[in-house]
Design a protein that fits this description.
about 15% strand, single chain, about 1150 residues, membrane, SEC23_SEC24_subfamily, Four Helix Bundle (Hemerythrin (Met), subunit A), SNARE binding, Rossmann fold, ADF-H/Gelsolin-like_dom_sf, eight-stranded mixed sheet, Immunoglobulin-like, alpha+beta, 23 helices
Amino acid sequence: MQRNPSQSLPHPPLPPGWTAQWSVECGGRCERARARARRQVRWPVCGGSTLRSKRGWKAGRRGGRQAGWDPTVGRHAFIEAATGRSQFNFPFGSPLPPAQGRPTGAHHGSRASISGPISSYSPPVHGGGSGGPFNGMARGHVRAGSVANAGVPRPPGAVPIPQFSPHRQTPPVIEHQAPPGAGPGAAVAQVARSPPPPQPKLGAIPTQQQQPPPPPQPRTGRRQYAANTAAYIAGDPNLSAPSTGAAGGSSHSHSQSQSFFSPATGFQDPSANNNPAAGGGNFFSPGAQGAQPDQYGAGAAGAAAAQGYGVGGAAPGPGAAGFAGAGAVQGMTNQFGHMNLGGGQKVQASVSTTNLIGLPLHPAELMSMPPPPLQARPTDFHSHSYPTPQASFSTSETRNADPSYQRATINAVPTTNSLLNKSKLPLALVLTPYRSLKPNDPEVPVVSDTVIARCRRCRTYINPFVTFIEGGQRWKCCMCNLSNEVPQLFDWDQEKNAPADRYARAELNSSVVEFIAPTEYMVRPPQPPLYIFLIDVSYSAVTTGMVATAARTLLESLDRLPNDDGRTKIAIIGVDSCLHFFSLPAGATEPSMLVVGDLDDVFLPKPSDILVNLVEARSALESLLSRLSDMFKDTHSVGNALGAALQAAFKLVSQVGGKVIALTSSLPNIGPGALKNREDPKVLGTTKESSLLQPQTGFYKSFAIECSRSQVSVDMWLFASAYTDVATLSGLPRYTGGQTYFYPSFNAARSEDALKFAHEFGTVIADPIALEAVMRVRASKGIRMSAFHGNFFVRSTDLLSLAAVPMDQSYAIEIQIEDPISAPFVVFQTAVLHTTCYGERRIRVVTQALPTTSSLSELYANVDTIAMATLLGDKAVERCMQAKLEDARDAIMNKLIDILGTYKATMTSSGSGASPQLVCAENMKFLPLLMLGLIKHLGLRQSAMIPSDLRAYAQALLTTLPSQLLIPYLHPVFYSLHNMPKECGTIGDQGVVLPIPLPLSSERLERHGLFLIEDGQNIFLWLGRDAVPQLVLDVFDVPSYAELRGGKMTLPVLDNAFSQRVNAIIGKVREARRGPYYAHLYVVKEDGDPALRQWALSMLIEDRMEGLPSYQQFLGQLKDRINDKSF
């Protein structure tokens, strides 16, 4: 093949192993040509310095393209004869006219090598090939030298050539409309690239250290307790925690490509040679704790004062995300809102495979794990302050749902149900529509002008993913594509009575928004908040101090009850063997008590004086609460007519709706709903134990359904000194949108019990609450909601009824794909219509958009482990209620085997054959550990030592806790305190600095150490038997280990730095969790109470316990069963 005659400049030769070829038989469209494009360089058609893609050589085929001078930009344009479109290679232009037609010697269907020198080259970079931003027009991976056109005159008006930028991945792209006479159509620019700077793969998390230290060596024994055992110090290269890959895995396609690329097994990223950290990053700096002197060591008793203690170690790395030495965790930079979702191609990223056998997992990574990043290229309107009316989507940073509100188990939706079934992955949404806000959390924007734009067909609320068409007069629904009119007042500011900026509206910029509903969304005026308190005043309730603590907390919280509009009403009913109603007429200063003993046919004496306005009856109410405990201090009644009290409360509020808060400390034993003590220690740990976890009677479920229809929610506060049948009573909140709280062995004489109950009770009754709510989840065409998990009542196939929506309560909704999906993305929208406690009818809307994929590897690469664990926990508890505990554990194991086995069979070279490895996607590596934590959890594990009440309450938490609380509940957090760096426990940029969490193995325990274990519900301080007296004195204010009392306690704040740091860490742990829960603190001595010691050790889920395997044994079992099973 001859060289282009118009190319008169000398060119350097190709490097070894590189060839320059072209092909015209396919125009560069086929996959084979695209594969060649990744490793070949092309001859420049334009005669300039940039090597063109193959399409530039199509000039002689079927009319091809003709090159002509475009005077408007002072350079050549390639005119396609078929369409009249012109394209430019800006800014690297050439003043010389290119040759017309194809090169000499070329013919249709031939493949010719270019002879002679060509331009300088650079290795292939991400974003090239057919997946470029202009539908394959830019395939070149070659850049020209900056002197390629030296000495060549440029025509007048030509755009000057800019200086070469050595770190630019994507040069500016300028689109130009061809002038008259040049042919119709828009000009498309070709992209010239230069080598990218070294950077991690997409999804990796950058850290300060590019080369991670070697993984920690395992101890020689399972429990090596030695007096002089070296403490875990992250700065020790022999013990430090290693760097791990990012959860999202690696990606071959960067934001410049929308084409999925699924590499074969063993594929290596071509940029990996230039990027030693491409495999991932650290969530924490391994050298954080540094080299330290002996701190509270077993042999350091005499030298403790001289050497100092708790002060060693290096400072945490900059950007520590709450942990000492935690590396800066980069936020997701490739959010779905940056996508050009209007394109016809689907987004993909490669899946990174890891072997779980022997792989060290680091808890800091799990605690900071976000959902897999959504992969796509930027939209074309990002350079504008606002999108044009024809632009597809908003550029706001809040345009897609925050995972704390809504997250999916898979961040890419399969296009067909068969693909989903093949992957064995469950597809579901995990919702927390009303979560509590921390000080730095943004408020949910409120649209107050009552202008609500909804699709006429599918009733979707307008959101950041709709498209404005016809000059902005109409908008296209992102779910059903129906064209809808924009409301007349949509662009009008009603407060200022002036035109408004459409693109500043909250619903177009935020995925979580609240609309103030107009009157057409109401069937009646908004109800006032009604609170009915049912307080057990029997002998056990009075003697344990529950009555006094509840009355005092309620009295102190009266000003915190939601009552901004002055409409809140309240009633108090005492319950023992009779019902005690308290009359609180308006203006009265003293209450009067009315006793009803007929429990079979309950009636309400003076109902208008029982349910009273909080403001009008404030004096009588305060008098009642201050005297309530004394009124029943001499009672000897052991009856509990809870069922009758619930019926009375229902009659009191059924016409309006409200919230019933029942506090009981004994088993309901008389009247409607009476229960028997059915606990039998002999059946615990056997197959018959499941019967204790199912309701004893249908009374409470039937009553709950009746309450749900009348918008009455029930919260249960259970104080157990004996069996209370939590499994039966928790059914009331389950079907009414309430919550269950359980306090085993409650005794207000212990300040810790009183403090925990007062904190949680005061927080719950003071929280804003959504009343008479209904929730519906809409989705794009071809998708339907198939199953629901959580505390609500299913009113119809897709409508959930919630008499109340508490803060920080989670729900899970499974998804089924009914019809094939052809759209590049799908949208899920959750709408909750509710009445606020301030008298407004509102609609909270949460919108989430996810890309679609037809690639199996993409499904695995986009698994959200946190959401997946949440869903599987819900399904396991539901299985317990319908079958046996053993069946629930087997279901978890079988699902895990199906997922990992299918991954091995489809994503690895070993296929269905036996393998010594247990592989999974990098972003799924924590899933087996979380499932082991679920199997070993209090609610599911096999044990004859777990009371049925504790197990039932644990199951209630598994189905309602939000993800932020559920993950530590399954995988507790483990800190070493005696040798933590001196910065831990002090105030950092993000509050109190926490130590680096340790793996949950007793191998980390030391006889001279102090450790903290917490699961969000309880905190354990483990103290080794050889702890030096100075440590015991500084933390517990006790002179020696022998004199320390273990058990539940409040840690004193002493006048020394170490005590204050430990207390600060405990306070930070309690405050970091969302929700009302206040964790108890237990001091566990290594040789102390066996039951307490065993409870604390059960938190270390990587150890073997009660016949259940250790983590490594669990992985071995999974591997063996996968090898034995055919996939």
